[in-house]
Amino acid sequence: MKLYKTIGRLGFLAVILLPISCKESFLEQKNTQGITEDALFKKPEDGIALVTGIYDTFHDVDFTLKALWYQANFLSQDFKNFGADTFFETYEVPTGFDALNIFWSRAYQGVARANSAIPIIENMRTNKVISDSLANRLKGETLFLRGVFYYYLASNFGGVPLELQTVTDDGRHPRNTQDEVFTAVAADMKAAADLLPWRQDLAAADVGRATKGAALAYLGDAQMWLKKYADAAATYEQLTGKYQLEDKFVNIHEFNNQNGKESIFEIQYIAGSDMTWGHANDSHWLATFGMPEEVSQFGYSFADKRLYDSFEVGDTRKLSTVLGPGDVHPSPAIRISDYPLVKQNYPGMNTLGTVAKPWKGSDGLRSGYYGTKTWRDPAATGNSGNPAYIFSGQNLILMRYGQVLLSKAEALFKSGNAAGALAIINGQIRKRAGLGAAAGTDVMKIMLEEYRHELAGEFSLWFLLRRSGEQANYVKERYGIAVPPGKDLMPIPQRQIATNQELIQNPGY
After folding, report:
1. Would you kindly state where each structural domain of the chain is located, as residue ranges?
2. pLDDT of 410 over the 50 cut
3. CATH class of the domain at 25-242+491-499
4. Structure confidence at residue 15 (pLDDT)
5. Cβ(34)–Cβ(40) under 8 Å?
6. How far apart, in whole angstroms, are the C-alpha atoms of residue 509 and residue 94?
7. Residues 67-125: pLDDT tens digits?
8. Where are the alpha helices (DSSP H) in 378-428?
9. For residue 494, how many other CB atoms are within 10 A of its CB?
10. Burial (CB count <10 Å: 0-12, 13-18, 19+), residue 68
11. Please, are residues 81 and 70 in contact by the beta-carbon 8 Å criterion?
12. Cβ neighbours of residue 109 under 8 Å, at least 6 residues apart?
């Protein structure tokens, strides 16, 4: 499929149609470079391009890696950083950490695009440029995306300024409370769910767009943050029958199973695009970033052995989450022996090092244990090939049905239905993992372990732990580390405080 770039210019609006290079055909656009403002929004394709520009906000390597994946996994202590960002081990994240500023700026850029798009879509509807059905779908996608940006802003920082209309003043507004932000997320997701189709009703060319199911999943999560557990359980229940667990856990993140039956919302990238240094933001660094140095010359993130050891015997999620010395990669798409560096230095070896000589990097400072959920793109080899395929074009799953089921179980438990919670955990989540009923009677402890073993190495674990209120206990019990007061939240970026004196820093920073 040939992808075209869309470049639009809206001088008086906050929306800018940046270059678009995304994976699925629904994001395919014609080149509109040089178009005048008077010519915009005169045909349906213009409205589609407008909303496509909001999806493009996700396409920044630090947005997904250092502002979402880092926090979801380094703060739980199940993964560590090799390099300059080891401060996560002590929860002393500096206020000048640039990745957080990038995340804040990009998220609000997405919010601004969404806010400006909504009245344009309505004008196009009024002027009969687009049909009611297309206007509803585009508005639903816009509300969903705005809600997603605020969802992750609040998950990271707590309360942030709510901008729900195009900003016409200097934009220097104080923070809303965390509850106010999640209330706005819930409102956006509810409205989006009323406007969007189910995934099953999308045309093949539109796979990857926001759907009713995605809006309901995030609505349920927002209700969980607001402690409206009965409402959340009812919201999650609406997804029953619309999504299914993959039969095998390993299949969830397989390169040849993108937008699979368990996936609810994933960022779309371009497989086979430019994956070298200087690439466009249609690919990401998450894959080779976490491969062993012996494979990719990077190895900047690695797993703690205690995560590896924590899986129960027979848990099929283990090697699909983390590999240890002597293990064979579980994906049929990945053969460790085929990587150029392995061929050169360890010919014939198809395991992650050996028990006697684990792969800990040239300086021996890594653990020898590495995540496998993002190590699935066979084209991403790191700085070791010719040409060097450093980046990956594989989609990144932000929300999937396994997470929804666990959140539903927590919602049921906190609504007084412990039996219903255990029925989901034992009868669906653990059954898929090849395990019997969980031992013990403390449902919340069982819940935390299932969150960990189902979602480690993805984009949600720490946020779900914080939402549960058990984040400090989780870290203390598993790693003996006391989370300093307030440090379960990220600091408001100092550059944002410097430009907006209305912002007040989180306590502890």
Report:
1. 25-242+491-499
2. yes
3. mainly alpha
4. 42
5. no
6. 8
7. 899 999 999 999 999 988 899 999 999 999 999 999 999 999 999 999 999 999 999 99
8. 401-414, 418-424
9. 18
10. buried
11. yes
12. 57
